[in-house]
Amino acid sequence: MKELTVDAAVENIEVVTEFITHELEKLDCPMKAQTQIAIAIDELFGNIARYAYTPTIGKATVRFEVEESPLAVRITFIDQGVPFNPLERASPDIHADVQDRPIGGLGIFLVQKSMSLVEYNYENGQNVLTIKKNIE
To answer: How far apart are CA 116 and CA 57, in angstroms?
Structure first.
């Protein structure tokens, strides 16, 4: 398991993405999976940076774990910000006209569709959101 703790700030999305990408490259992770994971990081860490501690900046931890048989990666985002379960939002109506859709919700929808698992827990005063991606 590898772990990175940084300020939950938008400018650290790139730092988190580089941290995870470096670990994925060690596993010879296919580019498609790397891209899907990078999009998920942008969405999930971006939401933490924008909303978890507003108007202040707190810390966020990103944990990277590898699972065997089948080969998969598990990435966990942990923050002590405002409790928020993004999985409770209703899925957007992707068939509605763009101008008729409410703003928000599409990013987490795409994360759920591209990952093998997405789960949220609030434990010990922390938001804990985990994504898993099978890469084999």
So the answer is: 30
Report how far residue 49's alpha carbon sits from residue 41's, in angstroms, rounded to the nearest whole number.
Answer: 11
Whichever domain contains 63, its CATH number is 3.30.565.10
> Distance (Å, rounded) from C-alpha 80 to C-alpha 60?
8
pLDDT means per 10 residues, the chain with 136 residues, are: 98 98 97 97 96 95 96 98 84 50 64 95 97 93
Find the domain containing 126 and state its range: 2-134
| Domain count across the chain | 1
* Dist CA 66 CA 58 (whole Å): 27
pTM value? 0.89
Adjacency order of strands within the sheet including 72-79: 2-7, 59-67, 72-79, 126-134, 117-123
